[in-house]
Amino acid sequence: MKDFFSQFDFQSNLLFEDLTESENQAVQNVMEPLVIKKGSMLFYEGGIPTGIYQIKQGKAKKFKRGFSGEEQIFYIYTQEDVLGYHALLGQERYQDSCEALEDLKVNFIAKEDFLRLLNEIPALQQKLIKNIGHEFGVLANIIAVLAQKNQNARLALFLLLLENRFNRNSPIVKGIDLTRDDLANLIGTSPESLGRSLKQFKEQGYIETDKRNIYIKDSLQLEQLLQVKTD
Q: For the Cyclic nucleotide-binding domain, which residue ranges apply (predicted)?
């Protein structure tokens, strides 16, 4: 499943990997630890980039509002993910928004420091370029799923992705802790329609729920709904 997950994961958590000790120290020297409260914005559509963020604890959602005000979530960031560099590098205003889903601990790197690091550390520059290219492919895959798969297949996919993403740095498998509104926005449906699909999955033994937490009990059945190769 590793290659399968990589098709839908930005992998920005790997951005600072494989640096030398001195290069890593240079990065650490310019990181400013911040606490961002649940519901606060890391950045917002139309805002001017001032730096990048590395999440150390918590989750955040990347989303864009449609012309009628509805929200479409593109990605859920988790521990070690790095975000906010696309608009900064393009010298543009943010094209989307990012909101803390819970209290976050983050490392902030100011724009000037980050651009300097890219100039001074070729390995970081190369990793970032590679990662940006990968992210374009991820977004294309997500758009294809939203456009071509039925609701149950979309739900199965995002449950598998979220479980993998949320448990990436955890020694034990935890539930998928996400509001029904956010999960519905992620898969492109209404909360009411999502509720019916979750009830069906529960009755078929694919998942269990505890309040808003969702636990996958039969990942193989969810994979079969996707009709994709997982080897």
A: 15-135
